[in-house]
UniProtKB/TrEMBL annotation:
Pfam name, any one: Glyco_hydro_72
Spans annotated as Disordered: 385-426
Protein family per UniProt: Belongs to the glycosyl hydrolase 72 family.
Stretches with biased composition (Low complexity): 398-426
Keywords: Glycoprotein, GPI-anchor, Lipoprotein, Membrane, Signal, Transferase
Protein's name according to its UniProt entry: 1,3-beta-glucanosyltransferase
Length: 466
């Protein structure tokens, strides 16, 4: 990836709201007390067929990716109420209904910012991984352990009661090449575990899914993999990052027509978790296509990368202390959103069937857990399903990748439970690969390549990668 929500009532067609309408709603809404829930002014979003719905209205994601500080900062933008309120003013100018946040502190209080977002008609799409608590794409098995899952579950605890928590991402760009597809069963296992935890803890059914990298060779295989198998294994949605439309372009020139055809029978919601090429002028011509009648039967909108400038030229604004300077891209996006109003159900499919699991190939190297087989829940993590995760580690914990306790067994598909003969050593299993990561951090001053976490910053590859 290139770096590192909106209704007052169920009957409001949130995606068609203008910035002025959103501002009016914000002014009419009262702030919620700091009680662990949002203001309650927004209806919860659910999955129906291959689309999202807020009440009886189709919900199209119209948003931006939001992580001021970029991949190297590892800070929580919605724990700082001053910056949150500053940026909400810009969100309202854009007319968006969703922000995606890549990193949060699961020990911080987010009541005030989540309430302010809700009052502005904005939902949160949240990544549950952090730089220290994530899967290691180089050696995923040891990093899938109780310490890691405890952090993820604690994040779910922290955000499940906000009505404007739109969805959770179980991973982000974990697979970024053909030879890292062996990570897929662990990503799917984490997705399954999150869904079970939400159910076991009695939370509302918050959608859980994956954000895939802009890798054309295996992106469709990952999409089908995350949608195959039993209901307890399958994702609630699938998202991918797509930078193939670079202005000037078109629906056919960018190949988006072919993707619509390819995903035409996909039975869960599909959307772009990042888009917005910078190779040409950022006129955001793709917005009209994304919310047009050709794409709405298959796509549920998307998130523009990214809100703030982090040294990679993708920023819509530049943050200077308490001030914000808007770029030409910001102005162009405002216009694009205004001109791309969408209403109705968009031709969504109310029913569908699961995908067929992809077969092993040169571009899909899943061998240890083929088909519907998945790693079993590590035995040390079973307690969280019964008793809750407890206090999370936040952003300053010791990390999870080498904490031990990985699963070495296969879960039974369709059982609705993810226990099994999993091992839990409870000891550190530091390896040569982790030593290499430590060297990378020490010498380059950046985060290591890890599954679903922040990775190399712009000075190394010319783009800030999340």
């Amino acid at each position: 990836m290139k770096g590192a929500i909106a209704m007052m009532a169920a009957s409001a067609a949130l995606v068609a709201a203008t910035p002025a309408q959103i501002q009016a709603r914000a002014s009419a809404s009262s702030s919620a007390a700091a009680s662990g829930t949002s203001s309650g002014s927004l209806p919860t979003v659910t999955v129906k067929g291959n689309a999202f719905f807020a009440g009886s209205n189709r919900f199209y994601i119209r948003g931006v990716d939001y992580q001021p500080g970029g991949s190297s900062g590892a800070s929580d933008p919605i724990a700082d109420i001053n910056s949150c309120k500053r940026d909400i003013q810009e969100f309202q100018k854009l007319g968006i209904n969703t922000v995606r946040v890549y990193t949060v502190d699961n020990t911080a209080n987010h009541d005030e910012c989540m309430s302010a977002l809700a009052a502005a008609g904005i939902y949160l799409a949240l990544d549950v991984n952090t730089p220290k608590y994530s899967l290691d794409r180089g050696d995923p098995a040891p990093s899938y352990n109780p310490t890691y899952l405890q952090s993820i579950f604690a994040t779910i605890d922290a955000f499940s009661n906000y009505t404007n928590t739109l969805l959770f991402f179980s991973g982000n760009e974990v697979i970024n090449s053909d030879n890292t597809t062996n990570c897929a069963p662990y990503v799917k296992a984490v997705t399954r575990d999150m869904k079970q935890y939400i159910g076991e803890r009695g939370y509302r059914s918050i959608p859980v899914g994956y954000s895939a990298a802009d890798v054309s060779s295996n992106r469709y295989e990952m999409a089908t993999y995350m949608n195959c198998g039993t209901d307890d294994q399958r994702s609630d949605f699938f998202a991918f990052n797509d930078y193939s439309w670079c202005d000037p372009s078109s629906y056919t020139q960018a190949g988006w027509d072919q993707k619509v055809q390819q995903y035409g029978n996909y039975s869960i919601p599909l959307f772009l978790s990042e888009y917005g090429c910078i190779k040409g002028p950022r006129n955001f011509e793709e917005v009209s296509a994304l919310y047009g009648t050709d794409m709405t039967p298959v796509y549920s909108g998307g998130l523009v990368y990214e809100y703030s400038e982090e040294g990679n030229n993708y920023g819509l604004v530049t943050i200077n202390g308490d001030g914000v300077s808007e770029t030409t891209g910001f102005t162009n996006l405002v216009t694009a959103f205004k001109n791309a109003q969408v209403s109705g159900d968009g031709g969504y499919r109310s029913t569908g069937t699961p995908s067929t699991c992809p077969a092993q190939s040169d571009i899909w190297e899943v061998t240890a857990f083929s088909g519907q087989e998945l790693p079993a829940l590590p035995s040390g993590a079973a307690q969280y399903m019964k008793s809750g995760a407890g206090t999370g580690p936040g952003l300053t914990g010791n990390g999870s990748q080498n904490s031990g306790g990985q699963s070495s067994a296969t879960a039974t598909p369709g059982s609705g439970a993810v226990t099994g003969a999993a091992s839990h050593s409870g000891t550190s299993t530091a390896s040569a690969s982790s030593a290499a990561q430590a060297l990378l951090v020490g010498e380059l001053g950046v985060a290591p390549f890890v599954c679903g976490a922040v990775v190399l910053v712009s000075t190394l590859f010319g783009a800030s990668l999340l």
